[in-house]
Write a structure and sequence with these properties.
Layout (H helix, E strand, L loop, with lengths): L9 H10 L6 H29 L2 H19 L1
């Protein structure tokens, strides 16, 4: 495993203090924060893609077609 060093600033010090207030180690808090940051980034990307698709008439038509197909399959 890699060892990463970084310089904290005031903002990151406050964040680390909050993340370790429950007794977590700094390393555990940073590892979890990285995982959470990636999850949030992916969620935001999916949200943007969903908004784009919702505003695209061709995408909406395709979604409705697939939904109707799925409903038909489920009814069998």
């Amino acid at each position: 495993m890699a060892v990463v060093n970084f310089r904290t600033d005031e903002r990151s010090e406050r964040a680390l203090a909050e993340l370790t207030a429950d007794g977590s180690t700094v390393s555990d808090a940073i590892r979890q924060a990285l995982v959470d940051a990636v999850r949030l980034r992916r969620r935001e990307a999916m949200r943007r893609e969903s908004l784009e698709a919702a505003g695209n008439p061709a995408d909406l038509a395709e979604s409705r077609r697939v939904l109707a197909e799925m409903d038909e399959l489920r009814a069998r």
